[in-house]
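thread: overnight batch results

M.L. [08:02]
morning all. the overnight job finished for the chain we discussed friday. pasting input first so we're all looking at the same thing
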Amino acid sequence: MLRMNTLHNHERMSTQDLLLAIEAAVDRGETVFHIKASGQHDIGGPLWNRDGKKLMFTVSNPGQRVGSMCLPDTEVLVEGSASADVGWLNAGGRITVRGDAGDTAGHCAAAGAIYIGGRAGARSGSLMKHDPMYEPPELWVLKSVGSFSFEFMGGGKAVVCGYESQTMPSILGERPCVGMVGGVVYFRGPVSSLPPDVCVCALTDDDIAWLDAGLEAFLSAIDRPRLRKELSVWKHWQKIIPLPQEQHGCEGAFCMTQFRAGEWIENGIFSDVAPDDFAVNGLVAVGEYRLRVPVWENFGSAGRCSLDNSPARSLTSAGACRDCKICIKSCPQKAITRKQTEESFDYMADSRRCTGCGICAAVCPCDIWHMHPNRDMPQGD
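M.L. [08:03]
and the structure it wrote out:
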């Protein structure tokens, strides 16, 4: 066990020094940490033991992002409250805050569990997501959350117990679940108006079974097991889920092209400065969008060169092609072809495939292929 006090002779250890010290201790094989912090950030992740042993952190007075990017086999227990971004980008750890948590608790969480033994601030649970290859992330809050909670939630499971919060106008704050497209929010208590693309439903037997099992682990983690009976009256609970797309005006998968063509504000502020033909260009440009164009400048073949199927042009070059075909073998886009003529041969680069990467010019042993800026090429080349 390693105990660390971040105040020495009234001088505070920097966050960088603390994290480096923790990382060095993990490398030495330490697995249990008791940290008396003084507002340092990012305590508790991302760390792992090379032998697969569990890392356990007990922390007091942490700063922002306690348990950020926390990995599996890591447990973080905060004695008391924590500031913003508890479990930010949690990737599998179990993070327990026995007091209140600041804003954006569980923000972007993708795995693991986050337990809050008090209230959580605004935008808690925002952008939670779920990779179906792993168990969904969980966010449990004993009391209430602040406004814009579960904003743009894309997956996972959130539970807001509403303990000591039943007289509040909304235990989910104002404007909860805006932009929610996935996951589920279980809640117990009053909730203000919700956006039209989510709905409130009664619990199913499967919901109750999951909540019943999870509630025991949650209350044990925050050291409030005596609340089990009060919070297990399932008729007081409901859940929020996003509506299927076909129920709020969409058919099948969301199509941005259809949205822009049919729903975008006509004659809006960008209509005259950003005309859009709705064509989608690839990440790697070909054809006229290339920055550079390869040209086969073979001085030893009657001064001929070929680009696509354009007429031969007289050029000057210092080499003569040996017909080794290295350029054909090396082109990653298979854009180069060889054409036999009556007197000699030509090499050509197909603009429909060529990306202008320059590999042909780099590997040519005779310096025949040359790269030219596309803007300097004659029209039609």
